[in-house]
Specification:
Elements (H helix, E strand, L loop, with lengths): L2 H7 L2 H9 L3 H9 L5 H7 L8 H16 L22 H12 L1
């Protein structure tokens, strides 16, 4: 089943009722769990969770550090050919200059 089909089958009114029906007690229960489910997610995005944004931010930071550490990943594309297959490539601009310098 495609993702679009899954979205078509969702009952948005029911989801809205579940989210807006959450209380601060539901939010605290969700925050104190080690692993969360869809119902806990509904509690964390509900209006009842407004008072706990700072707590959620701290928890998110702790989880991020636990899984990813203090790492920074940089994407650096390397072009190892003398041809270009997209408009982002600058090989076409650089290569003629290099080839002219070699002769």
């Amino acid at each position: 089943m495609s993702f679009y089909k899954v979205l078509e089958n969702l009952d948005y009114e029911d989801i809205k009722k579940r989210i807006y029906g959450k209380t601060q007690t539901d939010v605290l229960k969700a925050l104190n769990k080690r692993t969360m489910n869809h119902d806990d997610f509904a509690a964390l995005v509900s209006p009842a969770a407004d008072a706990y944004l700072e707590v959620m931010a701290n928890r998110a930071q702790e989880e991020s550090l636990k899984y990813f550490g203090k790492s920074i990943v940089l994407y650096t594309p390397m072009y190892l050919a003398n041809y270009c297959v997209n408009s982002v490539c600058t090989v076409d601009l650089i290569m003629p200059t290099i080839l002219e310098d070699e002769s």
